[in-house]
Amino acid sequence: MKFVELGLRGVWLIEPEVFTDERGAFHRSFCAREFEQQSLVSTVVQGNVSENPHEGTLRGFHFQLPPFEEAKTISCLTGALFDIIVDLRPDSQTFMQWVSAEFSAANHRSLYIPAGCANAWLTTAPHTTVHYYMSELYSLSSYRGFRYNDPVFNFRWPSEPRIISEKDRNFLDFDPASLQKD
Fold first, then answer.
1. What architecture is domain 2-15+28-171?
2. What's the whole-model pTM score?
């Protein structure tokens, strides 16, 4: 696996070594040893699958507060997506900055998002299936989110989202006070 750090500390694009033969292709999407060698969280307590039949489906921005902060490793199994990651770690030099990444089933890449960052994705192809490993269980009391088009961030999506859940559409703009537990 090749790890390419993006513009935020701890956010990595993961490019696997793909082996092909007459049967098809094989690659690893996760390896605890290689994650640990990169100082990434290798604990996996939950695996999620998001099936998105339509291009232009947006999910996010989502994150959890301590002590339930979660690292995520996201892979695209079918289709393609555009993901934006926002650094919400108040002590980080890149606090409230963001980076984006595109990945797909065709390029086999994955994205590692460290705890303390929020992310959202937009499907850029129909029938996009996303698998992601979580380092922490879902905690309703720690769960937070903010709008995909919050003007403070000036996000640049590749196209206007067409499908957004009511919950995601009704998130408020980001408020740094939201990083504090109620």
1. Sandwich (2.60)
2. 0.94
